[in-house]
Amino acid sequence: MSRAASARIVRQPTADQLHQFATLLIADRAANDVIMNDRRPASIVQAVQLPWCHFVLIAPNDAPALIVGGIVFVDLPHSSLCYLGALFVRKDFRGQGFGMRLFREFQLRADQRRVWFCDLARISKIRLRHSSFSVEGRYRILRLSGYAENIAIAAGRLLAAHEHADDQEPLPEVCAFPGSLDLSAIVQYDSLVSGRNRSAAFEELTKVDGFRGLAAIDDRGAVLGFGVSLHSTPTSGEENSNELRIGPLYAVNLITAVCLLRDLCATADDQVVLHVPDLAKRMLRFLGDKAACEVDTTFQRYFSRE
């Protein structure tokens, strides 16, 4: 029997075990660059409190108190989505099947869902057989970082040029939700884009500290797009600067998306993090060439649908 086959799977980790896992990720610089969006161990420990966020850890049978790897995935009970966020095994335990055992934990949950996603950077270094993940499609996700002020200034310039051009449609009105616009209008627009009813997810999201939601509407009140941002502040004793995370952001065209970006960034003075598919080439050019955003990490997104 292999060492991984007899390893102990921890499906309900304690705070100490989670801290071990977080420390592993931070200690391994490569893993930190690849799969972590936050360098703070406390953020991982706090995330386990979210009912849709699952942590499964693994320990060798001959050292059951030693956490050597783990997997993190999101499973929204009101949705058909199951999403793999992180998979990591300590370097000296790799190549022994520990990663595969963790991946099977994700498969057990994902096999019951209609759609499941797997985002892995540097996929060639992760030894998962192709048969382990039934791939229907693949595209890249780029994690970009920049500064709110740069994005707001670049967006203002682009929108000013648009307004002065001949025969251009007027800019959409941007309003807040929930508040100026009922949340049901956002849910309806989102369902057209995603093909899923994520009303419960939006209800929960609006309750998160630092949430801000903006919608773009035309002169008839129809929704043309929406964007969400979450503002995070470092806790005491941690060195991270304030960070504004933007996404999801959906819009009918680039101008509408830029209107939303401008207003999301206008009142912030933070580092901004966005995840953008490489399919959105015009948005990538705007963020890179005009707003001085840089690509931190490139992920390969694989997806399967029953």
UniProtKB/TrEMBL annotation:
Domain of life: Eukaryota
SUPFAM superfamilies according to UniProt: Acyl-CoA N-acyltransferases (Nat)
Pfam families for the chain: Acetyltransf_1, Acetyltransf_18
Gene3D superfamilies: 3.40.630.30, 3.40.630.90
Domain named N-acetyltransferase: residues: 8-154
Single GO term (MF): acyltransferase activity, transferring groups other than amino-acyl groups
Database matches in InterPro entries: Acyl/Acetyltrans_Enzymes, Acyl_CoA_acyltransferase, GNAT_dom, YitH/HolE_GNAT
Protein name: N-acetyltransferase domain-containing protein
